[in-house]
C-alpha cells in the first residue's frame, strides 16, 4: 500500500478490501480499476497501475502460503470499527481453510473481502500447529 499516494490515507483500508475482493474473484483487474477510478477520482492510468500492483502483491502472498503448504488460517477481527459485523466478531480466533474461506452471513468469504472489513488472518503452519484453535 506504500505506493498508493494519490488516495487519501483514510481510504487505504477500503482499497485493501477492494483488492482482496478482486483477488478472490479471479483477479478482475478491469473491475478493480473502474472501482478505484469511480470511488477515488484517480485517472484511469493510475487506477490501472494501482490495481495491477496491489493485486499482484496479494496474489503472491496466497501463492507463497500454498507453496509452504499452508492450508488453514485463523480469522482475526480487527476490533477497529464502531459498527462491527456480528458474524466477523464471532469468527475471531476461529480456524478456516484458506481455499474455502469461512461461511458467514450465508456466503463464503475471507478476512478483508467484504466492504469496509478490516479483519485479517494468521496462517497456521502445520509443523508449528499446537492445536489451540481446533482440528
Q: Could you please describe the fold and organization of this structure?
A:
This protein is α+β, with helices and mostly antiparallel strands and 135 residues long. The chain folds into two domains: 58 residues; 58 residues, no CATH class. 41% of the residues lie in helices and 14% in strands. It is built from four helices and five strands, in the order αααβαββββ. The strands form two sheets. A three-stranded antiparallel sheet has the order 2-1-5. Strand 3 and strand 4 form a beta hairpin. Helix 2 packs across helix 3. The radius of gyration is 16 Å and the shape is globular. It starts with 11 loop residues before the first helix and ends in an 11-residue tail after the last strand.
Question: Could you outline the blueprint of secondary structure elements for this entry?
Answer:
Elements (H helix, E strand, L loop, with lengths): L11 H13 L4 H12 L3 H24 L4 E5 L9 H6 L3 E3 L4 E3 L2 E3 L10 E5 L11
Antiparallel strand pairs: 1-2, 1-5, 3-4
Helix pairs in contact: 1-2, 1-3, 2-3
In short:
With 135 residues, this protein is α+β, with helices and mostly antiparallel strands.
Total beta-strand segments: 5
Instruction: Give the H and E element order.
Output: HHHEHEEEE
Number of helices: 4
Can you summarize the main beta sheet?
Answer: 3 strands, antiparallel
The secondary-structure class comes to alpha+beta
Oligomeric state as shown: single chain
Total domains: 2
Name the overall outline: globular
Report, as a whole number of angstroms, the end-to-end distance.
34 Å
Widest sheet: strand ordering: 2-1-5
Which whole number gives the mean pLDDT? 78
The helix fraction, in percent, is: 40-55%
What is the percentage of strand-forming residues?
A: 5-15%
Low-confidence stretches: none
Radius of gyration: 16 Å
Amino acid at each position: 500500500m506504500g505506493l498508493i499516494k494519490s488516495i487519501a490515507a483514510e481510504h487505504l483500508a477500503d482499497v485493501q478490501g477492494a483488492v482482496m475482493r478482486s483477488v478472490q474473484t479471479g483477479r478482475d483487474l478491469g473491475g478493480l480499476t473502474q472501482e478505484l477510478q469511480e470511488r477515488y477520482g484517480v485517472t484511469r492510468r493510475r487506477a490501472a497501475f494501482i490495481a495491477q500492483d496491489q493485486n499482484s502483491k496479494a496474489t503472491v502472498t496466497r501463492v507463497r502460503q500454498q507453496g509452504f503448504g499452508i492450508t488453514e488460517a485463523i480469522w482475526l477481527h480487527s476490533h477497529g470499527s464502531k459498527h462491527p459485523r456480528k458474524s466477523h466478531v464471532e469468527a475471531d480466533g476461529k480456524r478456516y481453510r484458506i481455499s474455502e474461506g469461512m461461511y458467514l452471513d450465508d456466503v463464503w468469504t475471507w478476512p478483508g473481502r467484504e466492504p469496509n472489513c478490516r479483519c485479517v488472518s494468521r496462517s497456521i503452519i502445520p509443523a508449528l500447529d499446537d492445536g489451540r484453535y481446533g482440528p
